[in-house]
Amino acid sequence: MKKSKQLKRAMRLLRLKVILFVIGGSLLMEISNAGAPPPSRPFNHKYRPLDLGPTPFVDEATGQCILSPCDALGRARDELYSILDEKEKVQSQSRTLIGELQQAVVHGKESQDALRKIIQLMEQRIRSLEQSVWTLDKTSSRWNKCSEGPCTCTAETRTVSCWRLDLTFVPRSQNIPHDTKALDMGANRLGTLNKDAFKGMILLNELDLFDNQIEYLPDTVFDSLENLINLKIHKNKLKVLDEKIFIANINLETLDISNNELKEVPVGVFRTLRRLTVLHLSSNKFARLDENLLRGLNQLEDVDLSRNELTELPPLLLDGLTKLKSIKINDNQIKVLPPTLFRGLADVEILQLQNNEIAELPEKIFHDLTSLTQLVLTGNSLVSISPGIFSSLEQLHELHIGGNLLEHLPAGVFTGLERLEKLFILSNNLREIDSEAFTGIPQLLWLALNNNLLTSLPHDVFEPVPKLQRMQLDSNHFMFLPEGTLEPLKNLQYVNLIKNPWHCDCSILYLTRWINEHSDLIWDYQPKCRGPGELGGKSVYTMTFNDVCDGQWMSMMSIKNRVRARVR
């Protein structure tokens, strides 16, 4: 019986190969005639059916046929319909390919890439048909038989793990229980899958195809998985997704297609996924997105579009997705944010836009994000931030605006951030901070101002943030700190002052005294003097009045009039 099934499957596959070979060969011969379009004639290549030999359904022990006439008729009918269905599908696909190929010929040399893609797609379809299929087991001993194969089977949790077995094909020797709930095929070398790879696995909830080399998936490969909840296809080599590939997965909640080579996805590919809550499309090659791509995904809570090639975002891309909690669009090339992009998204808690090219924030861009707790704008091209831009973000705990081009922090720039605890403004071009720049953020615990161009601070600049615990002032251009600058910070636990050109004259004594009184708070106990003279390289905390002032006063007192008085 088993050999018979394998034989029939092989013959059906061979016939399909012949059809595609004849189609492809004929078309390539026509295309080789450069320039002129092919003549119009019916596509009607004939082939001789192969002799399959005697009927294989014979009991070896008795020599008797084991099929009744009705069984034989039914099997013949099913086989015929199956072959006709596959032939019709291949011919339908081939007719589409014929039209595309003919169009490629008309356009000549400019369509060579398109022609190459069409031929590659034909090859991928053939390779997917060559892939083996699991043996689905419904017997009472199914889980014991499952353990006899190369995969690990756990009956208690109904899981099958084929993780990291270096598979290039689905193992023929592996039985899969029909009631499997979780199947892990991650970290293998699968290049494609048969369209029937998961046929009959209607109870499957989790499928992991992570970290393979999958370039192509048949459009019906997931059709049996109507109870699938989590699907992971990340870290593969997918270049295209069929519009109908997820049409049957109506219960899907998590879909990860990140780390592939997708340049676009069909607009309707997610239309049936009404229960989807997590969608990860990061690390692909998207240059643009249709504004209707996410339309109807009203349960979506987490969307990740990071590490693509996006230069713009459609204004209505997130329209209606009112349950969103996390939006990540990091590491793209976005220059402008549409003013209405986040309209109506009152439940969003995390918004990450780091490493783009955003130069300006529209006035009310964050107005509706009243639940936001983390906002990341690191690594953009912001030159300035208008006071009040964050005024509606009353729940914000973290604000990251480092790695921009900010030169000045005006008064009231952080107004409204009553719950802000972490503020990172490192690696900008800051030269000036207004004395009231930090008003309105009384709960601030961590302030990072390192790696800027600051030379001085207003003496009362830290009075609005008395709860501050961590502060980074390193890698600036400070020569001294005004008397009393650090006195309001009674809760400080950590401060970094290194890599500043501290000028050790009389003006450094305030910092020297403060360091000695709070030595346990200093990240690097050795902030160094830049000068003057022999004091360069010495520790700021060792300076004394005699070191920095005595010589200075003596020098001033010994100054003589070097300009000779004019004699009249």
Annotation field: number of helices: 6
H/E series, N to C?
A: HHHEHEEEEEEEEEEEEEEEEEEEEHEH
Largest sheet: 16 strands, mixed
β-strand amount: 5-15%
Q: On the 0-100 scale, what is the average pLDDT?
A: 84
Strand order of the largest sheet: 2-3-5-6-7-8-9-10-11-12-13-14-16-18-19-20
- Work out the helicity level: 10-25%
Q: What is the overall silhouette?
A: elongated
Structural class: alpha/beta
Radius of gyration: 35 Å
Task: State the separation between the terminal residues, measured CA to CA.
Answer: 131 Å
GO cellular component, one term: plasma membrane
Domain LRRCT: 500-550
Subcellular location: Cell membrane
Organism: Daphnia sinensis
Provide a quick synopsis of the model.
Helices cover 20% and strands 11% of the residues.
Main features:
cell membrane, leucine-rich repeat, transmembrane helix, disordered C terminus, 16-stranded mixed β-sheet, alpha/beta, signal, two-stranded parallel sheet, membrane, 568 residues
Walk me through this protein's architecture:
With 568 residues, this protein is α/β, with parallel strands linked by helices. It has a domain at 2-130. The chain has helices at residues 2-31, 69-107, 112-130, 142-146, 509-517, 545-557; strands spanning 135-137, 152-154, 159-161, 175-177, 182-184, 206-208, 230-232, 254-256, 278-280, 302-304, 326-328, 350-352, 374-376, 398-400, 408-409, 422-424, 432-433, 446-448, 470-472, 494-496, 502-503, 529-531. A 16-stranded mixed sheet has the order 2-3-5-6-7-8-9-10-11-12-13-14-16-18-19-20. β2 and β3 (159-161) form a beta hairpin. One of its GO terms (cellular component) is plasma membrane. Residues 500-550 form the LRRCT domain. It is found in: Cell membrane. Keywords: Cell membrane, Glycoprotein, Leucine-rich repeat, Membrane, Repeat, Signal, Transmembrane, Transmembrane helix.
